[in-house]
Write a structure and sequence with these properties.
single chain; 332 residues; Rossmann fold; 2 domains; six-stranded parallel beta sheet; 12 strands; elongated
């Protein structure tokens, strides 16, 4: 895959405006005629949504997702409650149960707990007329079952994104068979871990020796493996700490290649400074905006679930200046 930057957010906003105009003019008949907003109100006014940004409030990545959802709330007129989970799958399950008990029109969830943990709860919510959709991490079984009634997905194809990053890292950094790489990821999470698996598979296919460490278990790795050539961080929060991690290990920019996921102001600075060499931008702002739009489209107009892949572009030192201003605003 060639290095490229995905189209600016303004293109999406333009498409949303066009889409809103079209559906307002020629909406298909829903199974039940929806209540229309009062004169002068926005077209999704009165629709109540619970939204999961995923991480801690104000945290790396989660803040971009939140900003996208807030923009959609403002644009469309929905009433949105935000639930912060600290990336804890068990907490997400508990919070989903609590959210469903309030009987909102829709819930937009992160799929980190996986289908096995989530699907019984989703079945119950759907049976009560609650629209459920997902972002960032897929729930493929629930999506297949409830797509006709609005269960969509907004995010990267996780395995493909991981595999693409691994292949590109080998090419960009001139790695060869027998070189050592460390992947710092989330294999313990059944759905979210697919991206980590994609990275590992690509590196092993390239002949590299891969050491895998679960997130929070990599203290002291670099000092104990002086021959490591590549470190892949499969988490936006970790990618943002690459410069700190290498500095604490006594390394200089470029001494160890770093590849990871997601942009943030810290990651932009690390790319410019030569600490981080390659990042996949999965455009997390869209993972906030579009699930709100999905629930509004389903509730008001009866549309089925949409599948939108947000993560396919690489960012490196050659093109980082194009996205840096938006990353500083927590949009990219």
């Amino acid at each position: 895959m060639h290095s490229r930057i995905l189209r600016p957010v303004r293109v999406l906003v333009g498409l949303v405006i066009v889409l809103a105009a079209l559906v307002s003019a020629c909406a298909p008949a829903a199974t039940q005629a929806p209540a229309q907003p009062a004169a002068g109100a926005k077209w999704c006014s009165g629709v109540k949504i619970v939204f999961f940004p995923g991480g801690p409030e104000g945290g790396v990545f989660a803040v971009n997702v939140y900003n996208g959802a807030k923009q959609a709330e403002s644009d469309l007129g929905a009433s949105v409650q935000y639930v912060w989970s600290g990336w804890d799958p068990q907490k997400m399950i508990q919070q989903f149960q609590e959210s469903a008990a309030t009987k909102p029109d829709g819930i937009a969830v992160m799929g980190h707990p996986g289908d096995e943990a989530f699907d019984t709860l989703i079945d119950d919510a759907e049976s009560k007329g609650i629209i459920v959709t997902s972002q960032n991490t897929q729930l493929p079984i629930a999506e297949a079952k409830y797509s006709p009634v609005g269960f969509g997905y907004v995010g990267a194809d996780l395995y493909t994104a991981g595999h693409d990053l691994g292949v590109e890292a080998i090419k960009r950094f001139g790695l060869k068979s027998g070189d050592r790489a460390m992947v710092w990821g989330l294999l313990s999470q059944p759905s979210r871990g697919l991206r980590t698996k994609g990275v590992i598979d690509a590196l092993e296919e390239g002949g590299l020796t891969v050491d895998y460490l679960e997130i929070d278990s990599a203290t002291g790795y670099v000092s104990s493996h002086p021959d490591v050539k590549l470190v892949v961080t499969d988490h936006g929060g970790l990618t943002a700490t690459a410069q700190t991690y290498l500095t604490s290990a006594g390394k200089q920019p470029g001494e160890i290649a770093i590849a990871g996921f997601d942009l943030s102001p810290a990651t932009i600075a690390a790319i410019k400074g030569g600490w981080t060499g390659l990042v996949i931008d999965q455009q997390e702002w869209l993972q906030g905006y579009l699930p709100i739009l999905q629930i509004c489209l389903t509730k008001v107009y009866g549309f089925s679930g949409l599948y939108i892949n947000t993560g396919a572009g690489f960012v490196d030192k050659s093109n980082v200046d194009s996205v840096a201003p938006l990353a500083e605003k927590n949009i990219r």
